[in-house]
Amino acid sequence: MDYLECIQRSLDHIETHIHEPLTVAELAKLCGFSPYHFYRIFGAYVGMPVMEYVRRRRLAYAAAELATSRRILDIALDYGFETHGGFTKAFHKVFGMSPERYRLHASDQIPVKIDLLFHRRYYHEGGIVLEPKVLKRDNFHVVGYVLETTAEGGQNNQEIPKFWQEYLENDVGRNLLSQPTVKGDAEYGICFARDTDTSRFIYCIGMEVADPKQVDEQLFTGHVPAATYAVFTTPPTNRDNFSHIIQQTWQYIYGEWFPQSSYEFAEGCADFELYDERCHGGEGIVMDIYVPVVRKVQ
């Protein structure tokens, strides 16, 4: 008997019955194991108890649906959570942030199920894992231009790249560089003024300044508080694929890294993108994503 194939059968069954009640006894029977034996074998292969895995997969599917305009309570009910509060608590425990916060970077991509045969090959052949640097950064001020958008339906994933395209094509950064007390030519993409009820927020393209009081009053100025950040550098790519790689990195951070890490999002702080001289040119370009974090409370 190939235990791996048996456990994979149970994983596939979970995926196709994700909206239905599931029990250890039912999944064990599917594999021909006693519940106790199945429980032990499943944990050894998957790395967590079976019902914990079921709960996480339901939350993963719910996370994907946060990219739509559906009410969070309706999504919670669809995946077996009876209250908004219960869903929020479970979601925060896995993803390190509230569903409302996650919605800002949610992808409507259906989560990929575990393929143990693939993982067997992966661990034999090796693979690349995107690991962040964790560092502290003092508070700072930015001056720039803003776009009001929403995370509902993934609208921000369409509008923000277009906003950047217009910013670059019109050479708007030249005006920011001319402002008094500007600190270098590195550009930031920062989310401000989030409304968790409507998922609307302000996205700023800006540059750091020492004194925001001295800049053009028609420009937006924002304050970014001091925080500890997990800093992710995007994989090197070309100009044509840059926007896609950035979005994929955001999806990795919120969909894969947070659930597996010992950190959660630091509320009251801002996540942002940093574009410096490393993203100039056409090939091998990279940028950094700064996500404010605190250690999870055990």
- Estimated helix fraction: 40-55%
Structural class by secondary-structure content: alpha+beta
CATH class of the largest domain: Alpha Beta
User: Topology as H/E string?
Assistant: HHHHHHHHEEHHEEEEHEEE
Q: CATH H level of the largest domain: which superfamily?
A: Regulatory factor, effector binding domain
| Most strands sheet | 9 strands, antiparallel
Q: Would you identify the regions where 5 or more consecutive residues have pLDDT less than 50?
A: 121-128
Please, how many helices? 11
What is the overall pLDDT average?
Answer: 86
For the record, give the distance between the C-alpha atoms at the N and C termini, rounded to a whole number. Answer: 38 Å
Overall domain count: 2
Strand content: 15-25%
Number of strands: 9
Principal-axis shape: elongated
CATH topology of the largest domain: Multidrug-efflux Transporter 1 Regulator Bmrr, Chain A
Per CATH, which architecture of the largest domain? Alpha-Beta Barrel
Based on CA atoms alone, the radius of gyration comes out at 22 Å
Describe the structure.
- It contains eleven helices and nine strands.
- With 298 residues, it is α+β, with helices and mostly antiparallel strands.
- It folds into two domains: 123 residues, Arc Repressor Mutant, subunit A (Orthogonal Bundle); 163 residues, Multidrug-efflux Transporter 1 Regulator Bmrr, Chain A, CATH 3.20.80.
- The longest helix is centred in the C-terminal third of the chain and has 19 residues.
- It is elongated.
- The relative contact order is 0.12.
- About 3% of the residues have low confidence.
